[in-house]
């Protein structure tokens, strides 16, 4: 049986060097593009006469819709492979995390498949995101 150190050496030997600079730039530019698209949409919605609040909500809905459609047709996964963390801009990443299991388990039926599995990826994000925000809020409360 291999020790942890021996296993790590084998993995290191067979793994290539990670192109950190290239990966970081890809994530930065794709994530930046998604945010820029959001800003463009917001300015467009504001120019149509929507209020600031309604324009912001409409941008969120639009980005969720675009990410869901791109997930359904298989494009979002290719963008994710190219950009890595750049696609994890919260609203599009969350949309993908909900849409992917819904598509994957649709053959099992609406309730036991789609409805039961839709939050398999996003559920833990919601739980631990909520928990960490409560902890941060409590820390802030006691510091003030």
Can you give me a brief rundown of this structure?
The chain has about 140 residues and is an all-alpha fold. Helices cover about 80% and strands about 0% of the residues.
Give your account of this protein's structure.
- The chain is mainly α and 144 residues long.
- Helix content is 79%, strand content 0%.
- It has seven helices and no strands.
- It is extended, with a radius of gyration of 20 Å.
Distance between the amino and carboxyl termini: 54 Å
Mean pLDDT: 88
Count of helical regions: 7
How big is the Rg?
20 Å
- Main beta sheet strand tally, sense and closure: none
Give me the oligomer status.
single chain
Which parts are unreliable, with pLDDT below 50 for 5 consecutive residues or more? none
Sum up the overall morphology in one term: extended
Helical content (DSSP H or I, runs of 4+): over 70%
Helices and strands in order:
Layout: H1 4-14, H2 20-47, H3 52-72, H4 75-83, H5 90-104, H6 110-117, H7 122-143
């Amino acid at each position: 049986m291999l020790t942890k150190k021996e296993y790590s050496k084998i993995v290191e030997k067979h793994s290539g060097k990670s192109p950190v600079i290239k990966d970081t730039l890809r994530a930065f530019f794709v994530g930046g593009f998604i945010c820029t698209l959001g800003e463009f949409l917001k300015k467009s919605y504001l120019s149509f006469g929507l209020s600031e609040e309604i324009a912001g909500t409409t941008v969120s809905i639009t980005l969720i819709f675009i990410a869901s459609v791109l997930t359904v047709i298989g494009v979002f996964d290719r963008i994710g492979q190219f950009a890595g963390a750049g696609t994890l801009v919260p609203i599009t990443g969350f949309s993908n995390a909900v849409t992917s299991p819904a598509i994957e388990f649709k053959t099992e039926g609406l309730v036991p498949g789609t409805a039961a599995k839709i939050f398999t990826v996003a559920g833990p994000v919601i739980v631990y995101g909520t928990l960490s925000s409560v902890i941060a809020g409590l820390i802030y409360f006691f510091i003030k």
